[in-house]
Design brief:
globular; 175 residues; Hypothetical protein yfbM fold; alpha+beta
């Protein structure tokens, strides 16, 4: 699996115009301004893929691609944390930047909140991560890799909770 970093970007409803899904300028400005606004963006580096796999036991495939291939998709699945949302016309390395509306954000936050960091850590399976060559391919450095991943999971939970509490939407950028 190639290395792809994930960025989650908060989108206050007042900054998401009706035409935003097809307006690359709006999406691009949100991505750019998130770099300058403290707390508006969560950079998960390569951890997102392992987090996705340990939460879902599925290899990542974006919702829009799964539907295009005729695969089933559940809107309340934890797969939506990184693979969900509605595609915009703005693209990243791993496909379109996707937008998750505040209601969808709320629903996923509730589901994510049910998995404590301790429960997440208990699902850590170094053999599985190494077998599927999940980035960053350093899973055999157990103490460091496990701690690094759990810290990113905690940051993900906190970011989702704060975003849901604010009533914001979310952009998912994988690049």
């Amino acid at each position: 699996m190639d290395s792809v970093d994930a960025f989650l970007i908060r989108v206050p409803p007042e900054r998401w115009p009706a035409d935003a899904l097809t307006n690359d300028e709006v999406v691009g400005e949100l991505i750019l301004s998130s770099r300058m606004t403290p707390g508006a963006r969560l950079a998960l580096e390569e951890s997102w893929c392992a987090i996705h796999i340990l939460l879902t036991w599925e290899l990542p495939i974006p919702k829009h691609e799964a539907l295009r291939r005729g695969m089933s998709w559940e809107d309340d699945s934890l797969e939506n944390i990184f693979m969900g949302g509605t595609p915009t016309t703005c693209t990243g390395f791993f496909g379109p930047v996707c937008y998750m509306a505040p209601a969808e954000m709320q629903r996923l936050n509730q589901k994510l909140a049910t998995i404590s960091p301790a429960q997440f850590e208990a699902s850590y399976d170094v053999d599985y991560l190494m077998e599927y060559r999940v980035p960053p391919d350093t899973w055999d450095d157990l103490p460091h890799a496990r701690q690094w991943l759990v810290q990113h999971y905690k940051a993900l939970q906190a970011f989702y909770q704060q975003t849901a509490d604010r009533g914001d939407g979310l952009l998912i950028l994988l690049q």
